[in-house]
Specification:
Blueprint (H helix, E strand, L loop, with lengths): L11 H9 L2 H11 L5 H8 L3 H14 L2 E8 L2 E7 L1 H4 L2 H15 L45 H26 L1
Antiparallel strand pairs: 1-2
Length: 176
């Protein structure tokens, strides 16, 4: 079955999913953050079939998230190393871990983020780099950019109008 190409969509979420929107790719990136770099290490860590692993590694290399580097010449063997683009995926991984811990760790936390300077468990939140404020649904919304399609612009503008109506209703309720 041919995969739908999301790269043609103007949505940055769709374009990102076109590169990593499949669980094996995300788990390969997770292991790369743990320092796994060789084919046999990925295979052992993930329990993935070699043909599927090869396909996923090649896709991540083509997408620019991993770089293939020779580490042995006779025979030639390669390792897979995170690129700058791949390393920039880390906040997404941390957000997935935080969300997974909150909603799916019914037996307890299997892993969590720690500040190694003082050993405290980190409650990861997305923040605005400019203000340092946490990004919240109440205070932040997505707006259409200059390259937004008409469909995206309409969807986002409808959401903005809905949010404004909700805020107005809440303000009226407060006054009552």
């Amino acid at each position: 079955m041919k995969k739908t190409n999301l790269d043609e969509m103007p949505c940055p979420i769709a374009r990102a999913l076109d590169r990593v929107g499949e669980w094996w790719s995300i788990l390969i990136l997770r292991d790369a953050f743990y320092g796994v770099s060789r084919f046999d290490e990925f295979e052992k860590s993930l329990g993935i079939a070699p043909n599927m692993l090869a396909r996923r590694l090649n896709g991540l290399v083509e997408a620019g998230l991993l770089e293939r580097r020779p580490y042995q010449t006779k025979p030639v063997r390669y390792e897979y190393v995170l690129t700058d683009m791949g390393r920039d995926f880390r906040p997404v991984m941390l957000a997935l871990m935080t969300w997974g811990n909150k909603y799916f760790a019914t037996e307890g936390l299997a892993m969590f983020l720690v500040d190694e300077r003082d050993g405290h468990m980190v409650d990861a939140v997305l923040t605005d780099r400019h203000t340092g404020d946490p990004i919240t649904r109440e205070n932040h919304a997505m707006y259409p950019g200059p390259a937004a399609s008409e469909r995206m612009r309409t969807r986002l503008e409808n959401n903005i109008a809905r949010r404004a109506a909700e805020r107005a209703a809440a303000a009226m309720e407060k006054r009552a």
